[in-house]
Amino acid sequence: MSEIRLSVLDLVPRFGDTPFEEALEQAANLAVHAEKWGYGRYWAAEHHDMKDLSCASPEVLLAHIGARTRSIRLGSGAVLCPITVLLR
Side by side, which strands form the sheet with 73-78? Predict the structure, then answer.
């Protein structure tokens, strides 16, 4: 029987008046802990025009996380266009 590797999909939310910097730090801490817990991959979902999500630039976030982790695989879970672009 093969092993199932779990992944984390993080929308990088900010709660209440939490600063964006704190939300990004919480995302990095989640990835560090996920690696320790044996998760196979950390996914950062890219979102725009959503005031309570902090991951408009997952490539920058993943570079920051990559500097703090050793073995967990990193990826961007979605690349979305803002709805305003689609309506133009």
Answer: 7-10, 41-45, 73-78
